[in-house]
Amino acid sequence: MADSDRSDRLAGTYFDAAIELLRQVRDEEGERITAAGRLIADTVVAGGRVFSFGAGHSSLPAQDTVYRAGGLAIMNLLSVPGVVGVDVRPATLGSALERVDGLAAAVLDTSPLKAGDVLVIISLSGRNALPVEMAMNARALGIKVIGVTSVAYATATKSRHASGGFLKDHCDLVLDSRIPVGDAELTLPGIDAPFAPASTVVTSAIMQAVVATAAGTLAERGIDPPLLRSGNVDGGHDWNARVMGDYADRIFYRT
């Protein structure tokens, strides 16, 4: 097969791999995703708050749930300077901060999170000190923790936390993204490294499925879910202003 023929098929091969991962998550994690959505709905009903956190590229699915059209207005991002996002310079600093012991405790102590709230922690490997300690300390404070991670890493790698544990070991609920170790779906002769990661696609889908379940559960209980509309449709800004006003005590991205 000519090189051009191989490269022409890569896009389709990648889509097939991502679709297969999504199917696995749908079929094998569906019950836990439903449970996670219901836990968020329970928290909303009880007057609690909801936060999501991820470091590096794992922050992207967390950010994808915050202040967006079709999403719940009460989803907040737990921000850690230098860690959330990939805009820090140098980019390697973010990876280094994930391995710093004690950082999670300082973040939680200065955050709005309190007992009865929900914290979604996203970490593909679940092996670094920051997500592990974040989960441990949050639960010690009475915060419910939902972990979104690839459980495969716990059998193929070693924890970087002093306890030897992974994120999955310190959560009330674990959602397995089923992403293979290394997060790359494609290989090709002549290319030494595997390429084409799928973790953002799959983990973002998991997060949106959880949010959708939470919204549907609230509606089933007779509660109008605090959903945001697109600011690019007529009336969207007025709608959002009303929703955010109604839930102002649970929204922390406006100040």
Automatic annotation (TrEMBL):
CDD domains: SIS_RpiR. It comes from Streptomyces siderophoricus. Residues 40-223 form the SIS domain. NCBIfam families: PRK02947.1. Belongs to the UPF0309 family. Gene3D superfamilies: Glucose-6-phosphate isomerase like protein, domain 1. It comes from the Bacteria. This is UPF0309 protein JK360_21115. InterPro entries: RpiR-like_SIS, SIS_dom, SIS_dom_sf, SIS_GmhA/DiaA_subfam, UPF0309.
